[in-house]
Specification:
single chain, about 450 residues, alpha/beta, 18 strands, about 40% helix, globular, binds nicotinamide-adenine-dinucleotide
């Protein structure tokens, strides 16, 4: 673990490098993004192996980490236009001035990641930080120990530490970093730690982006293609063994189709992972024993209708569906973040919406229905960071869609242009000429001037 003084030294060096103005050059940023892309591509095997060692993810799912290169391509395509100052129109009263918005980098930023998508969750914000022209310190999660090491190696080999560096360690390292002054802190993790981060940031008035979690509901209406909905729900829920921040946390299904829906879900689980998912090469494991024990404790209440098998030495929890769950059950109190899907039912959409709105605003909300009016109603009457209509999880991978929570599920957003915005300050500039001067604003404020002033502002 690093003590605060070496950390201060790293930050000092980064500030010095930032002050040279090198990172402000768009050509430099483009070059660095290309280097990052190449480094990820060159280390694909090491990344896939590390993700397998941490979470036993199948390559197909582990490639999700490597899709960060698509994000780089998107930034490379648009960076020149994003970085250009934009001219804006100004009111006639300010004639002959002209207005501009200059995006400028913030300086030295801190990126703290979570363990569930351990490379992507630090590299994706890093792409925004580089694109916007910042220096960065990256702290991956210590829990995904193998991927954290690979991320460190890649970044250390690719960048000078005075520009981008990695600091490895757990909560104490994180807190030592948070005691330093940064120009922005980008945090991905739990709501609990998000509060600690924001409190520390407040001491230095550092702006934050908090990518947090929460319970993302999945509402299933009766007007639905049951089989297709079941496939998308099962995929989104059991991907990475449920350890996805935007996985459907619980199912809220209309009573009239509940039995049919549960049968379809059970059949999909068998189709995807076989009769014994423990033997499936495509089914991931729980990250560690602490998370495993927390999840197993959630299996006590309700009626398990699919799965329920666990094996601590293998950190295996079968894809599990639990019926007969009440809103008061322990599993309905906090984000599950594992392969357990509790099922609740509703009679009317009004009731489902009221129940969702009664709880903290989720990171994602899923609604399955072919009825456009009901879709519009859910969009209008609920609030969440993101929404999937007849879809799960994929809203995360569309660079044109800013990703982030609201309320307890987060502050700010990123991906695509939103990442560039997050790590930029939009500086407002008003330029005037000294060739001539309209004297209306200057004292003495004669009656004539006041008359004109009121006319201009329609007062
Ligand atoms: P976590 O909050 O325990 O840890 C996240 C990071 O904070 C780690 O790097 C860790 O070292 C650090 N940390 C831990 N305790 C700390 C403390 N006391 N002070 C300062 N730093 C501390 O989260 P996690 O278990 O790694 O990840 C799971 C959570 O992250 C879930 O809630 C999930 O929903 C959320 N998540 C959100 C997103 C998103 O994009 N919104 C993505 C992935 C995960």
């Amino acid at each position: 673990m690093l003590t605060p003084s070496p950390l201060s030294e790293i930050i000092r060096q980064q500030r010095e490098f930032f002050a040279t103005g090198t990172t402000k050059e768009v050509a430099f940023r483009i070059e660095q993004l290309k280097r990052l892309k190449q480094a990820i591509l060159d280390n694909q095997t090491a990344i896939l192996e590390a993700v397998k060692a941490d979470l036993r993810r199948a390559d197909f799912e582990a490639y999700a980490e490597i899709t960060a290169v698509a994000e780089i391509d998107y930034a490379l395509k648009h960076l020149k236009s994003w970085a250009k100052p934009k001219r804006v129109s100004v009111p006639i009263a300010q004639f002959p001035s002209s207005g501009y918005i200059y995006p400028e980098p913030l300086g030295v930023v801190l990126i703290i990641g979570a363990w569930n998508y351990p490379l992507q969750l630090v590299v994706s914000p890093l792409i925004g930080a580089i694109a916007a022209g910042n220096c960065a310190i990256v702290k991956p999660s210590e829990i995904s120990v193998n991927t954290s090491r690979v991320v460190s190696e890649i970044l250390r080999k690719t960048f000078e530490p005075a520009y981008i560096t990695v600091v490895e360690g757990g909560a104490e390292t994180s807190q030592a970093l948070l005691a330093e002054k940064f120009d922005h802190i980008f945090f991905t993790g739990s709501t609990r730690v998000g509060k600690i981060v924001m409190e520390a940031a407040a001491k230095n008035l550092t702006p934050v982006t908090l990518e947090l979690g929460g319970k993302s509901p999945c509402i299933v209406d009766s007007e639905v293609n049951v089989k297709c909905a079941a496939r998308r729900i099962v995929w989104g829920k059991f991907l990475n063994a449920g350890q996805t921040c935007i996985a459907p946390d619980y199912l809220l299904v209309q009573r009239s189709i509940k039995e049919e829906m549960l049968e379809a879900i059970a059949s999909c689980i068998r189709e995807f992972y076989g009769e014994n998912p423990a033997k499936s090469p495509d089914y991931a494991r729980i990250i560690d024993e602490r998370q495993f024990d927390r999840l197993v404790a959630l299996l006590k209440e309700g009626k398990i209708i699919v799965g329920g098998e666990v094996n601590r030495s293998d950190r295996y929890i079968a894809p599990t569906v639990i019926d007969e769950i009440s809103w008061q059950a322990p599993i309905m109190q906090d984000e599950i973040f594992g392969p357990i899907l509790p099922v609740l039912e509703y009679e009317e959409l009004t009731e489902a919406i009221a129940n969702v709105n009664h709880r903290p605003k989720p990171l994602a909300l899923y609604f399955f229905s072919n009825n456009k009016e009901k879709q519009a109603r859910v969009l209008r009457e609920t609030s969440s960071g993101t929404v999937g209509i007849n879809e799960t999880v994929l809203q995360f991978v569309v660079p044109q869609l800013p990703f982030g929570g609201v309320g307890n599920s987060g502050i700010g957003s990123y991906h695509g242009k939103a990442s560039f915005d997050t790590f930029s300050k939009y500086k407002s500039v008003l330029k005037n000429t000294l060739w001539f001067d309209i004297k209306l604003r200057y004292a003495p404020y004669t009656k004539g001037k006041l008359y004109l002033f009121k006319k201009i502002f329609s007062l």
